[in-house]
Design a protein that fits this description.
The complex is a heterodimer. Chain A is of the alpha/beta class. Chain A contains eight helices and eleven strands. The chains are: A alpha/beta, B alpha/beta.
């Protein structure tokens, strides 16, 4: 383990969704997945990493108490804070980054319950200050004219990747990227490209996995539950 | 001579450790090949507990024995236990919920207060200790709940005990799933007739020499938490003569 891994890090958990596409009235981060609220999985994996000294999580205002309750029950005594959600994902990420106490931050989202201790650790051990998981796209893609509904051309899948979380950032670079994006009026849907585009910093691409799925729809929950119940792969 | 494979981070807490299966389990896990560097022996204060701790401590100089006096019929005990563990910086990797209580009586004679005590010792305490271990972030890898064949099929006259052990079996089934993300293996062992003091309460006229001995159950526990035990994962492992 190198020196970087010994430095304390903050886990930033994006958890602000309101779950309009899924099966319950509660936001999807609270949906039960094999007995636990989905958001618990990202927290359980973090409790096993000593270097993670705090966990910061977003919560919609009306679910602040419920989020606090889940964190108290699953954080294994690690300090945590429940913070407001921003208007966009980008705002939420900025709110978390500003509140973090450490120079190194791990950014994750509660909708990816397959995160493991090993993934957090691999990011912390990575010699680059900024790193994330990127997975090959195993299917064909193309561009379509939305107006005419006609196929325009193919997109080479050798050049594009699925951006997965968790990611690791140098907190200063992440905040600088947010400030620059706000100043330029740019909206990003994730932070690795934002940091790359808006600052001089580079983001190291680690190999992602198909198991690290994002659980959003009702079908995703069914798939995730079956995956969790299946033997280790 | 085989070199002692002591892993400094392996610590076990055994409840009901002053007698019977609990004491034998402590003796068994103190053997160098089990790799435990610390054994917390939890029971009510008694001469037997002190003697048992001394005996277990004499087995392996590389395995420290910690005596923890607590009465698990008191719901406040679990908090006390984790206070002691925290103060001594003990991080549990294995928990053996073995402590048991029974006072056999029919539906006509069983008192609700005694049923409550049975549930507290046999079900609620294990629940509180497991929950406490999670909340205090103990790096558990193995959880062993000692149930009983009396929990599989109810037996007349043993209402409270049978019901409590059925609860332990069901609870273990749930925990096996719920503790997966923690990487904790949950083992539920249901001994049949075993020559313990509790068995004497249940079957006073039985000759203890004719039935399974506590050290035999302890050997199974030792096996179940060894690498070989990984091959024996079971919903509810019944051991009986």
């Amino acid at each position: 383990m190198n020196d970087l891994a010994q430095k304390p890090a903050s886990l930033l958990l994006l958890s602000g969704g309101v779950g309009t596409r899924t099966r319950h009235h509660e936001p999807k981060q609270f949906f039960e997945l094999c007995g636990h609220p989905m958001m618990a999985y990202a927290v359980i994996a973090a409790t096993k990493i000593d270097a993670i000294s705090e966990i910061l999580v977003n919560a919609p205002k009306e679910f602040h108490d419920r989020t606090h309750e889940v964190m108290a029950n699953y954080s294994g005594g690690k300090p945590f804070k429940v913070l407001e959600c921003g208007k966009t994902r980008q705002d939420s990420s900025f709110i978390l980054a500003q509140a973090a106490q450490n120079d190194t931050v791990l950014l994750h989202e509660t909708a990816r319950p397959f995160v493991t201790r090993e993934m957090y650790q691999e990011l912390l051990d990575d010699p680059e200050g900024n790193a994330g998981y990127f997975h090959d796209i195993p299917f064909s893609m193309c561009k379509i004219d939305r107006k005419t509904k006609m196929v325009l051309k193919g997109v080479s899948r050798a050049k594009v990747f699925d951006v997965q979380l968790p990611q690791k950032f140098n907190r200063e670079s992440l905040i600088e990227a947010h400030q620059a994006a706000i100043a330029a009026g740019k909206i990003y849907t994730e932070d690795s490209v934002m940091v790359t585009k808006m600052t001089e910093a580079r983001v190291h691409a680690l190999t992602g996995s198909s198991r690290n799925m994002k659980v959003t729809s009702q079908e995703d929950f069914t798939i995730a539950e079956n995956l969790m119940k299946s033997k280790k792969t | 001579m085989i070199e002692a494979a002591v892993h400094p981070q392996k610590s076990v807490m055994i409840t009901g450790a002053s007698r019977g299966i609990g004491l034998e389990t402590a003796k068994s896990l103190a053997q160098p090949e089990s790799g435990f560097s610390k054994i917390v022996m939890l029971a009510r204060p008694s001469r037997e507990l002190s003697d048992g701790c001394d005996h277990v401590a004499s087995i392996n100089p590389n395995c420290e024995v910690v005596k923890l006096e607590a009465d698990l019929s008191d719901p406040a005990s679990a908090d006390y236990v984790f206070g002691v563990l925290d103060s001594q910086k003990i991080r549990l990797t294995t928990l053996v919920n073995n402590a048991g209580y029974t006072r056999p009586a029919s539906i006509n004679e069983a008192e609700i207060s005694d049923f409550q005590k049975t549930m507290q010792v046999n079900v609620y305490s294990p629940f509180q200790l497991i929950q406490g271990a999670l909340r205090h972030n103990h790096p558990l890898t193995h959880l062993i709940n000692i149930a009983s064949t009396a929990g599989i099929g109810g037996r007349s006259g043993w209402l409270t005990y049978s019901a409590s052990k059925a609860a332990v079996i069901s609870m273990s089934e749930v925990l096996r799933e719920e503790l997966k993300p923690y990487g904790i293996d949950v083992i539920c062992l249901s001994p049949g007739r075993c020559a313990t003091d509790l068995r004497k309460t249940l079957a006073p006229d039985e000759d203890p020499n004719t039935i399974m001995q506590p050290d035999e159950v302890a050997s199974i526990i030792k096996l179940m938490i060894s690498p070989l035990g990984q091959l024996l994962k079971s919903q509810n492992l019944v051991v009986r003569t």
